[in-house]
């Protein structure tokens, strides 16, 4: 193999092992053995397991973020944007199951690459300004858009994790239920929400 070909092979091997066993349980010896190379080859390309993991995670983050960004760019109405973004995440989970398993696990201590939590924060940032426009048009406070953006993104991401382990529902059904809850909840928002059980308390 050429150097670039070997590097891609090691990334594929590492991705499969990290998805199956997690970062901590995966060893350089195992990566090298699966790729049929010596340990020094792994160190030569990535400096160690941490370097390989960083490359794998970065690729998955860029892939998912690109899908969701494209979905948001192609949307027309607020509801259409919500549907497209929801389907983009579920499409990623379905087609890149190994990558999603890696992203939802905790990064190793001191890992400099992004995490799933930081990725969701990036996505929420994209959604935030869209919600602000929608809120203003509906007479709601646009300053609350960041809160709702994070709630929406978190709801979809957590449901996606649940669906990954329970595939008895079709992807379109999961998306339809998510959009139904999110959209109808947004449609009926109180301008100044309060908790009845905590009236008068901060």
UniProtKB/TrEMBL annotation:
Annotated GO biological process: negative regulation of DNA-templated transcription
Keywords: DNA-binding, Transcription, Transcription regulation
Signal peptide bounds: none
PROSITE patterns the record matches: HTH_TETR_1, HTH_TETR_2
Positions of the HTH tetR-type domain: 4-64
InterPro entries: DNA-bd_HTH_TetR-type_CS, Homeodomain-like_sf, HTH-type_TetR-like_transc_reg, HTH_TetR, Tet_transcr_reg_TetR-rel_C_sf, TetR_C_32
Residues annotated to bind DNA: 27-46
Domain of life: Bacteria
GO terms for MF: DNA-binding transcription factor activity; transcription cis-regulatory region binding
Alphabetical list of Pfam families matching this protein: TetR_C_32, TetR_N
Protein name, per record: TetR family transcriptional regulator
Biological source species: Intrasporangium chromatireducens Q5-1
Lineage start: Bacteria, Bacillati, Actinomycetota, Actinomycetes, Micrococcales
């Amino acid at each position: 193999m050429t150097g670039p070909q070997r590097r891609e092979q090691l990334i594929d091997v590492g991705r499969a092992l990290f998805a199956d066993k997690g970062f901590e349980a995966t060893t350089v010896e195992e990566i090298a053995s699966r790729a049929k190379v010596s340990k020094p080859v792994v160190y030569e390309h990535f400096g160690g397991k941490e370097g390989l993991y960083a490359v794998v995670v970065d690729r998955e983050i860029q892939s998912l973020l690109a899908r969701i960004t494209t979905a948001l760019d192609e949307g027309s109405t607020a509801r259409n944007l919500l549907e497209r973004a929801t389907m983009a995440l579920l499409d990623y989970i379905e087609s890149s199951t190994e990558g999603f398993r890696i992203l939802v696990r905790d990064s190793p201590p001191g890992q400099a690459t992004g995490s799933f939590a930081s990725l969701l924060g990036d996505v929420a940032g994209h959604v935030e300004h869209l919600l602000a426009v929608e809120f203003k048009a509906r007479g709601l406070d646009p300053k609350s858009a960041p809160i709702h953006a994070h709630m929406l993104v978190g709801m979809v991401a957590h449901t996606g994790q649940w669906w990954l382990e329970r595939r008895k529902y079709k992807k379109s059904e999961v998306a339809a239920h998510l959009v139904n809850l999110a959209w109808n909840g947004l449609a009926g928002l109180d301008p100044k929400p309060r908790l009845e059980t905590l009236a008068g308390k901060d």
